[in-house]
Every structure is written in C-alpha cells, then in structure tokens.
Amino acid sequence: MPLPLPHLRSAVRRVTERASLMRRAEALVMVLIVLSVLVLMLDSVAEVHQRHGRLLHALEWIFTALFTLEYLLRLWLLRSPWRYARSFFGIVDLLSILPAFLALLLPGLHVLADVRLLRLLRLFRILQLPVYLDETRHLRQALVRARRKILVFIGVMVLLVVVLGTVIFLVEGPGNGFSSIPASVYWAAVTMSTTGYGDITPQTSLGRLITACAILLGYGIIAFPTGIMGAELFAGVLDSKRPRRDGCQCPCRCGKGGTAATRSGD
C-alpha cells in the first residue's frame, strides 16, 4: 500500500537530511553546475558549436532537466517553499532553468541567444551549498555593515575622477585627444584604476605630471575598500565565535549573556 503524500514527504525529508547523503549531494550539485557552465561556454565557440552542437544541446537539456527536478523537489520538501522561491537563490535557480523552456515556447526569437546566458547564474548556487553558507553569511553581513563606508568611498572616487578629468581636459584640450569632459573623465577613471588602456594619452609635460599623480593616487586609494571589507569580515567572524550564555548575547555587546531573569538574579 503506497504511503500517503504527507508521510512520503516526511520520509524523503528524513533521508535527505542525512549528513553523509548531504555531502554527496553537495558534491554532485557542484560538479553539475561546473559542467553545465562549461557546456555553455564551449557552445559559444563557433568551431565547437559547428562540430559538436547537437551533443552540447543534448547535454544542456540533460542539465536543465536535472536542475528542474532538483528545484521542484526542493519546493516539495521545504516547509516554507514560497519563502525559498522568493529568496535570492530561489530566483537564481528559477532563472537558470527558464531559458530552455522559453526556447521551446518562443523558438523564433533571436533574443533567446542572450537569454541563454542566464544559465551562468547557476554559478551563484555554489554559494548556496551548506559548506559555503557560513562564509556567504559573513560576506553578506560585512557588506551590510560597511555599506555607508563603501558609499562614501564611491562618492569620493567619483568626485576625484570628475575633478581630474576636468583638469586634464583644460590642460590638454581636444587637440591632444581629450575631446570632451566625459572623455577626459573616462581617462581619469582608467588611469586611477591603474589599467591604462593607452587610447588617450597626455602630450604635454603638465599633463604627464597629472597622470603620474593620478596613478600614484589610484594605488593608494585601491587599498581602502580592501581594508574596510577585511576589517568588517574579521569583526563578523569574531562576533560569530564569541561565546554566548543561554544562546543569547547582551544588547550592549559587553560580552554578558543569558536571559533577563538570569541577569536579574546575579
């Protein structure tokens, strides 16, 4: 006699929660993600597509079927399926399997060649694997804590780029390739990032001096976001390892824990 649907779901849920099975499933999902992205990248090469297009297309459908099955199974097993469906990783999972089904429904649209690139979103699923969940959480919390500092840093960078671009435009002018202030701002951004494409170069001595100062300034500024994120990540790791009594922490972050009743009896 077959099990009722709720009992079947509970039985499958207990099986999937086994630690050994979870580790194997994580490894399998990671391999499938890497292989699916590799197939998509190879299919973008004209020679490979011409020789092995049918094989790559079949592999794409196999990966799509597996990821679709995994997505539906996850929705079926989770106690809060719609919460997962609306989450970032749930949306990533859905967008990564949509292109194949859109190609079936709308085969004549040329835009689907670009929509297929949504499959690259599967790479984000690696961050969803339990082995990386703590690291992903620490990174997200560090970004949230440092958001004001990062916004201030971006504002200062934009200001410096605009000022340097305007100054170099006044010094060099259209005759030396700096045709407008936006073009000069582009030069300032490329120079301060120490990329230096070389498509626009100053010709005067003063312009070259400004370029040297911009490069040195760029080297010094690049370290700022690294230091901000490093400090926030370190603080987040320390907070997560800080011992907590009775599973809670004092709101004043003094290191004391316990419930209100416990603290009142001290």
UniProtKB/TrEMBL annotation:
It is found in: Membrane. It is a multi-pass membrane protein. Gene3D superfamilies: 1.10.287.70. It comes from the Bacteria. PANTHER family: POTASSIUM VOLTAGE-GATED CHANNEL PROTEIN SHAB, VOLTAGE-GATED POTASSIUM CHANNEL. This is Potassium channel family protein. It holds the Pfam family Ion_trans. Keywords: Ion channel, Ion transport, Membrane, Potassium, Potassium channel, Potassium transport, Transmembrane, Transmembrane helix, Transport. GO terms for molecular function: voltage-gated potassium channel activity. Residues 26-231 form the Ion transport domain. GO terms for cellular component: voltage-gated potassium channel complex. The chain crosses the membrane at residues 27-46, 58-77, 89-113, 150-171, 209-235. GO terms for biological process: action potential. It comes from Stenotrophomonas tumulicola.
